[in-house]
Amino acid sequence: MNSNHSGDEIQRLIDLLAKLPGFGPRSGRRAALHLIRKREALLGPLAQALADVAERVTECAVCGAVDTRDPCSICCDPERNPKTLCVVEQPGDLWAMERTGAFKGRYHVLGGVLSALDGITPEDLRIPDLAVRVRDDGIEEVILALNATIDGTTTAHYIADALEGQTVALSTLAQGVPIGGELDYLDDGTIMAAFKARRVF
Fold first, then answer.
1. What fold, for 8-56?
2. Which of 31, 139, 154, 174 is the most buried (most CB within 10 A)?
3. How many CA atoms lie within 13 A of 31 on its CB side?
4. CATH for 66-200, among 3.40.50.150, 3.90.330.10, 3.40.1360.10, 3.30.1050.10?
5. What is the pTM of this model?
């Protein structure tokens, strides 16, 4: 029996909110209470937005981004340079790059990084697809915007080996991205500085 005397529906909301990154039971309760208090302005629109996303969100078959269309809006944008690819781990990293406005090319979302510990192999990621895109689309530059972690560095080296023999310039984000730093947590200025000072990989 739960001790906070809330109805089953409210408790379910709290439990679900508590599963969000950075949340726990206490944050879940606070967020649920805030949503209930502001049900007209927040709860209804949030429920509708969640329903819309659940129904319409899809993964772009070209780059692996999440969007409500396939191919995604970035892959379909004629203003973007189709010859430059920025490789990121997750859609959140793509969003972080987009916030800065520093990059005008297209993306390739791996879906993670290589990890012997977690048993994640190149086939579990979109690395083979990347090699095909570089070859078939005449990609001229691949920017490795992977997190500065051991697994991120291992993945970057694996990609460099996988693209060996293809006439493509490889670069990686430079200064400003601290070792162990994750793109999604960095401020826009730091990402822009790292982007502009990218170096040959």
1. Helicase, Ruva Protein; domain 3 (1.10.8)
2. 139
3. 18
4. 3.40.1360.10
5. 0.78
